[in-house]
Amino acid sequence: MQVLILGCGRLTESLIPTLIQTGHRVTVISEDRKCLETISKFPTLEVVFVTAPTLQDFLRQGNVDHADAFLALSGDDHLNAMTAQIAIHTHEVPKVVCRLENPYLQQLYSSLGMTVVGDMTKMSQDIHQTIES
Amino acid sequence: MFTIVVGGSEVGFSLTKALISAGHEVLIIEENQARFRLIVDEIGPVASCGDGADQSVLDEAGTSRADILIATTGSDATNLVACQVAKNVFKTPRVLALIRDSNNRSIFERLGVDVVVDSVHPAVVALEEGIPGQPMVHISDLAPEGTELVSVSIPADSSIVGMSPSEVDLPPHNYICLITKRDETHLPSDTMVVESGDELFLVVTADDHQEVYDILTGV
């Protein structure tokens, strides 16, 4: 499967080895050149550095039209929400995942049918449980 | 009428002032502290400081009773999210957004933004028009997709000078629709001839762009 990832951070970094090992072709697009350099140590991984892009170009540079999955995993909720929706509606990418930190936005975009990750609610429940136990 | 303006940049701030002087109730939301103070200093306590795409900030601002939300930040993504939160959570009847990237218009419209205003493209077009000898100026996208309204200035050595508009042989689905001669604009007619310096307004299809341009300006 061709997987396109937006954003270069710990989450992306931790996903890459598993995705590559299970035979997926992975492309990462990011504005963070340093981070892209760090992850380019993975063989077969394609990285695309983008500067001050207009958003639609941003995705095209990552060849979004050929992606089977798009993962919006940047640290910016708004960017993730918008690019995920562009991937779904404009490029008809079959599988789209959107990372959101803001619990309200998680709720909103889940209710709009999007696959949302970044469940802070569960994290706070876990923390709460540990403290209370 | 109660309007929420998200983003206190030049556009958002000027709009807020205009709405206030027109007697509307307005609240402007600006994230940057310094900018927020500047706004309050000038127009009084009708501003709130925070992320205008955040539900709790919008809630506190009274968005549930707003008639209109206008998202004017410099980020297309933030503007989209603010509009979606207003529309879906607060059921705001009308949401408007500014965009910087013209390519984003269709996704905004598809996701329920009622009015999408392009903040960069019209300025580029206006500036292009001010450059002498500028070839084909894009004015507006038309339906169906790929159709646009453009203008072309006719150079003195063009081979269509002296022809009537109907004699100009354009590919199918490309039309001359208006001709500006000096200070007057006319519908094309058979009694009229194309002269050097005329400005022709045309409906063109994207694929024929170059061909149309060559026909109009070619020697």
Fold and architecture overview:
The complex is a heterodimer of chains A (133) and B (219). Chain A is globular and about 45 Å long. Chain A has 133 residues and is of the alpha/beta class. Chain A has helices at residues 10-21, 33-39, 55-61, 77-89, 103-111, 120-132; strands at 2-6, 25-30, 46-49, 69-72, 95-99, 115-117. Chain A has six helices and six strands. Chain A has a single domain, classed as Rossmann fold, CATH 3.40.50. Chain B is built from seven helices and eleven strands. In chain B, strand 9 and strand 10 form a beta hairpin. Chain B is elongated, with a radius of gyration of 23 Å. Chain A binds chain B through residues 54-57, 76-79, 81-83, 85-86, 89-90, 102, 104-105, 108, 111-112, and chain B through 53-56, 75-78, 80-81, 84-85, 88-89, 100-101, 103-104, 106-107, 110-111.
- The termini of chain B sit apart by 58 Å
Largest sheet of chain A: 6 strands, parallel
- What is the CATH class name of chain A? Alpha Beta
Instruction: Show unreliable segments of chain B.
Output: none
Given the helix and strand composition of chain B, which structural class is it? alpha/beta
How do the SSEs of chain A run, as a string of H and E? Answer: EHEHEHEHEHEH
Shape of chain B: elongated
| Secondary-structure arrangement, i.e. CATH architecture of chain A | 3-Layer(aba) Sandwich
Number of domain units of chain A: 1
Total helical elements of chain B: 7
The SS-based structural class of chain A is alpha/beta
**CATH topology-level name of chain A:** Rossmann fold
Residues in helix, % of chain A: 40-55%
The average pLDDT of chain B is: 92
> What's the β-strand tally of chain B?
11
